[in-house]
Design brief:
alpha/beta; 12 helices; globular; seven-stranded parallel sheet; 303 residues
Length: 303
């Protein structure tokens, strides 16, 4: 199987690429700078240049792909949300989805499936409510971004292409993403809950994230939204306690909401919003998690 990945050099894309190669699948990555990307790209991966806005230059690659995984988009937590940055976050996602749709439409042979990235922020902050894929979107910046992101590639369905949407939670990896930032205060013996500590944090081990995406690619019956989170969401204070226990560090130093708001501005919502999300569609489809338990996930990553 030939899998074409946008955003393939990021944390999730890199893990997915490694997983696919282990299964002897062919992988191509769309990149805006092939020469620079070649320095860190695994052997055997093909690099295809694109502008992240259109189908220019990569329609032929799309025509040879069995699957396209669209992970492209500016990072949500890479800096404070200025007005300009919020626009870049939104536009980068819309542009990538539009480009994928254009490429599929122009391709002489269509891929069998498009996997479209999204996030659990789709649901908005819902307190203790258990959230499955049947729940509608919330309101505000992040839910609106997720709704628009998911719609950005909906046009491929009219072309007869199966589409699976992945609503990803907090990805646990020591190689990047949010987890290393969460680890830092614990390493300094200053770890603890954030805000009230009562907000639900849906998480997933990076290995399960990559395995789940590959599962959706290979499962011909998989379509529509899937929550990519472990089956055991934790309240933030419990997350901190489990992490502290694995690291043999205290977990009682709080990060008060006002301090987080002062330091991060509106971006503090990423840490303070509550999403009690479960992976109902994924488990119903037959996926089995390697790390359903947070303690086991922490131990694997920090051993």
């Amino acid at each position: 199987m030939h899998v074409l990945i946008t955003g393939g050099s990021g944390l999730i894309g890199s893990a997915l690429t490694a997983n696919l190669q282990k299964s002897n699948h062919e992988v191509s990555i769309l990149t805006r700078n092939a020469a620079r990307a070649a320095e860190s790209t695994p052997e055997g991966v093909t690099l295809v240049e694109w502008d992240a806005k259109s189908a220019d230059g990569w329609v032929e690659a799309a025509a040879t792909a069995d699957a396209i995984v669209n992970l492209a988009g500016e990072g949500i937590a890479d800096g404070r949300w200025t007005r300009e940055r919020k626009q870049r976050i939104r536009q980068s996602r819309l542009d990538a989805g539009k480009a994928v749709t254009e490429a599929v439409k122009a391709a002489s042979t269509k891929p069998k499936v498009v996997v479209q990235a999204s996030g659990i922020d789709y649901y908005g902050s819902q307190g203790d409510t258990i959230l499955t894929e049947d729940h509608g979107p919330g309101t505000g910046f992040l839910p609106t971004i997720c709704v628009d992101w998911e719609r950005s590639s909906v046009g491929v369905e009219a072309l007869g292409v199966r589409r699976a949407i992945i609503r990803t939670g907090i990805v646990l990896s020591t190689e990047g993403g949010a987890f290393p930032k969460v680890l830092l205060p614990f390493k300094l013996f200053a770890g603890g809950p954030m805000g009230s500590g009562r907000q639900w944090w849906p998480w997933i081990h990076i290995e399960d994230q990559a395995r789940a995406i590959q599962f959706l690619i290979e499962n011909d019956d998989a379509h529509g939204p899937f929550n990519l989170v472990a089956p055991e969401p934790l309240e933030n204070y419990a997350f901190a306690q489990r992490l502290g226990a694995v690291m043999s560090r205290p977990a009682f130093v709080p990060a008060p909401t006002p301090a987080l708001r002062l330091a991060l501005g509106e971006m503090a919502d990423v840490l303070l919003d509550s999403h009690r999300v479960i992976p109902k569609a994924l488990t119903d489809a037959g996926f089995t998690f390697s790390f359903p338990n947070a303690t086991a996930a922490f131990e694997d990553l920090l051993k």
